[in-house]
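Now for a concrete sample entry.
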Amino acid sequence: MPHRIRLRRPWKREVYCNRQLIHVEERVDLPDSQAIILDEESAASHNVFDVTYHRSFNCPTGLEPTDKLSIELQKPVSGEVEVRLNGESLPRDETVGSKTDATEEVGIYSISEPLRSQNSLEIHLVVTGKGGERGLQLQPQIGGVALKINS
């Protein structure tokens, strides 16, 4: 029977333009669909941005060497997605069903290496901005995130 540990707050959200950090929010919640308003100087006439969510978590106790671990990323997710754990990109598992027990659509990213005592999870999105009265508006969308343990 799978066990899910929801990775809730705090997440750190960073926005990059041409690999330059232009906006940081230290404490955001997932799911997240909160608009980000960038001033014209920060946006610098670009409309495609990288949005990265960071969160650390401890290794759960009681894991067995035979347990299969993965990261579940619930929909909606805007743009292209890359999931990294401890600096390593996780492959999306296309062979596993794409619904949780609650029939929510998810992306499943397999973890092949053992977890460390302290782990760093990053989710990278590519988001397109839209012009507005106050500047450029980004609307990243990302659902909940969970560590899934299959014993």
About this structure: The longest helix spans residues 40-43. The CA atoms of residues 19 and 125 lie 13 Å apart.
